[in-house]
Design goal:
347 residues, 28% helix
Length: 347
């Protein structure tokens, strides 16, 4: 393993989930990265087997519960120091089954608890110089219609009655945003819209769940009469943005997005997920029913502005300061069995 001090040593959180896996693989082949410490909730993905078997041990994997103080503290006081990690890429949990109804940690949403602990440890560890975070573009306050063009300075949705999942995204955004001017730690917050992976999986969207079409047993409900415009980005471009932010000298908040946008109804159809529009008053009744049913066959996306009004992102700051330009387009292709599926080929 090279001892070049210019080569980065990077921790990637939730590396066992799709976006974390994609970022880890991108960094593994990056000549400017000496080592990747991949952290996950479960066992290492099978796609890591080849990397983990490499004799230079450029990839190390560890199972850590990032929502609990003791495991996170032990991680930073042992493995982070042992591997001389100097940078952290924090990927929020987004795997199949993720829900705003996950158990709270000391009364705080799991996503928020993880954000607090990761930031706290990065601030305390003098060896950590850079923190790159994936956040959600759904934190912006949306006005009626699809004409919302959001810059990094646009107002956030601070409505106390917003859905729990959205509130946790806003909380995390504000936690990291408050440190972007910290002199001791360079913080970069990447606000990403709906993330599309090849094969039809969708992440970071308040309605479309992170599941494959063949595994979707539930009926997802959304408000009737609205078809919000969805800004899109491929998982490969998310990994590209994270790598560019890692090697940049800039700090701050950046919108990153692909070139395509789609109405929610069309995106739902493309991904093979069944999103059923129903009248607003019925959503409240359906929400109670879904709670009683445990969400096994009915899931209500909510009736907030993010489910009614669309938006696009102004990404000029990311282009100018990070050099980010999307390299993949999102379209349709036929799988080997003839089934039409979403894909993310290079532009």
């Amino acid at each position: 393993m090279s001892g070049d001090p210019e080569r980065r040593r990077v921790l990637v959180s939730h590396a066992d989930q799709p976006l974390g896996r994609r970022i880890v693989k991108r960094l593994f082949w990056d000549e400017r990265v000496a080592q990747v410490l991949a952290i996950g909730d479960g066992p290492p993905p099978r796609s890591f087997d080849h990397f983990l078997a490499a004799p230079d041990r450029r990839l190390v994997y560890a199972r850590v519960d990032l929502s609990r103080h003791r495991p996170v503290s032990n991680l930073f006081h042992s493995q982070v120091r042992a591997h001389r990690i100097d940078s952290v890429i924090h990927v929020p949990s987004h795997g199949p089954g993720e829900s705003p109804n996950r158990p709270l940690v000391a009364g705080v949403a799991t996503r928020t608890a993880e954000a607090r602990l990761v930031l706290q440890q990065c601030l305390q560890d003098r060896g950590i110089h850079d923190l790159i975070v994936l956040g959600s573009a759904f934190v912006y306050r949306l006005t009626p219609g699809n004409a919302n063009r959001m810059t990094e300075d646009s107002e956030l949705n601070l409505d106390p009655d917003a859905a729990a999942d959205l509130r946790s995204w806003v909380d995390c955004d504000m936690i990291f945003h408050g440190e972007v001017h910290n002199d001791a730690l360079r913080v970069v917050l990447l606000r990403v819209p709906t993330v599309v992976c090849g094969g039809g999986a969708v992440f970071f969207h308040p309605s479309l769940s992170a599941v494959e079409r063949n595994d979707w047993p539930a009926r997802d409900l959304r408000p009737l009469g609205f078809d919000p415009l969805c800004a899109l980005i491929s998982d490969k471009d998310v990994a590209l943005a994270a790598r560019l932010a890692l090697h940049s000298r800039h700090s701050g908040v950046y919108n990153v997005s692909g070139n395509e946008t789609l109405p929610l109804s069309e995106l739902s159809r493309w991904t093979g997920q069944r999103s059923l529009p129903v009248p607003g008053p019925l959503l409240r009744v359906a929400s109670r029913v879904a709670g009683l049913a445990g969400g096994q066959w009915l899931r209500v996306s909510g009736d907030g502005p993010q489910m009614r009004y669309g938006f696009t992102l102004d990404t000029r700051r990311a282009a100018e300061q990070l050099g980010f330009r999307p390299g993949h387009r999102i379209g349709l292709a036929r799988a080997g069995d003839g089934r039409v599926q979403i894909e993310t080929p290079e532009i």
